[in-house]
Write a structure and sequence with these properties.
Strand content: 15-25%
Radius of gyration: 18 Å
Number of helices: 10
Bound molecules: flavin mononucleotide
Helix content: 25-40%
Distance between the termini: 40 Å
CATH architecture: Alpha-Beta Barrel
Length: 251
């Protein structure tokens, strides 16, 4: 059994470049950090607030995957070109954001409600994207029964990875994650699969690995914020205190 890699989930308002840099210095176990979503603008300019997130000098020494939130292949490709020029080799597409203002525009998990739009986006992206592309998805909009058809779509494209937050859009963050529905991704996804949702302890990670021995990666958000050492070994009090001190000083 290979050991799973751990990724730090994108968390808007939490895992910005300052947090990522300090966290990776004290707790180097997370293999990759996904940025909170960046929305490419129609006029194709990265506002300074977004540029700060991805500027190479702000992310030195940290393995970062920028995440884009858009339904436009043109805007995705523009942003991907900019990010490739900065040295990024992989970009994540957000197909999971459940916020009403995002999904109403057909973005994030809204992409799962209009599968033609999802296909058009993926067609455009994979026709010309200069870097590898992963997708972070939910299981569906209302019902996990939507997932097989969504998985069929992803299987038509050479995704570098399929990251599955094992909930529907309507569930937002409530209830518990659907491991049975997620199992279909492990069985049928052409792309390597990463699990996401409710992993909060080493025991949760061990249970996940026991159930899915071939799973290569787990993405953790809230669990890593509350236990920043979760991707490695539990530190002593001194290290935790220094981590908090360093965070306060960095902000
Ligand atoms: C405050 C907050 C901000 C989030 N921001 C993003 C985001 O920018 N992009 C994204 O794909 N997911 C975002 N998520 C979802 C997380 O990445 C993750 O999928 C979700 O929290 C479930 O994983 P967890 O149980 O390990 O936290 C956010 C979640 C929270 C709680």
């Amino acid at each position: 059994m290979d050991f799973m890699e751990t990724y730090f989930a994108p968390m808007e308002g939490v895992t910005d470049h300052i947090y990522r840099r300090v966290h990776s210095r004290y707790f180097p176990g997370a293999g990759r950090y996904f940025t909170p979503f960046l929305s490419p603008t129609k006029d194709h300019v990265f506002p300074p607030r977004l540029l700060r997130q991805v500027a190479p000098e702000n992310n030195r020494g940290v393995s970062v995957v920028p995440q884009l939130l858009t339904k436009s292949p043109v805007d995705f490709l523009w942003a991907a070109g900019q990010l490739a020029d900065m040295g990024y080799g992989e970009i994540d597409l957000n197909a999971g954001c459940s916020s009403g203002t995002v999904t109403a525009k057909g973005k994030g998990a809204g992409l799962l409600a209009d599968r033609d739009s999802l296909r058009r986006l993926l067609d455009g992206i994979f026709a010309a994207c200069p870097v590898r592309v992963s997708v972070k998805t939910r299981l569906g909009v209302r019902d996990t029964a939507e997932f097989p058809a969504i998985l069929d779509i992803y299987n038509d494209y050479p995704l570098s990875q399929l990251i599955v937050h094992a909930r529907t859009r309507e569930e937002q963050y409530g209830g518990s994650a659907h491991l049975d529905a997620f199992a279909q991704a492990v069985e049928r996804s052409r792309a390597p699969v990463c699990y996401n949702g409710d992993v909060r302890s080493a025991a949760d990670m061990a249970a996940l690995q026991a159930r899915f021995p071939s799973l290569g990666a787990v993405m953790i958000g809230r669990g890593l914020v509350s236990r920043p050492w979760l991707a490695g070994n539990m530190p002593d009090r001194q290290t935790l205190r220094q981590f908090h001190q360093a965070l306060c000083e960095a902000y």
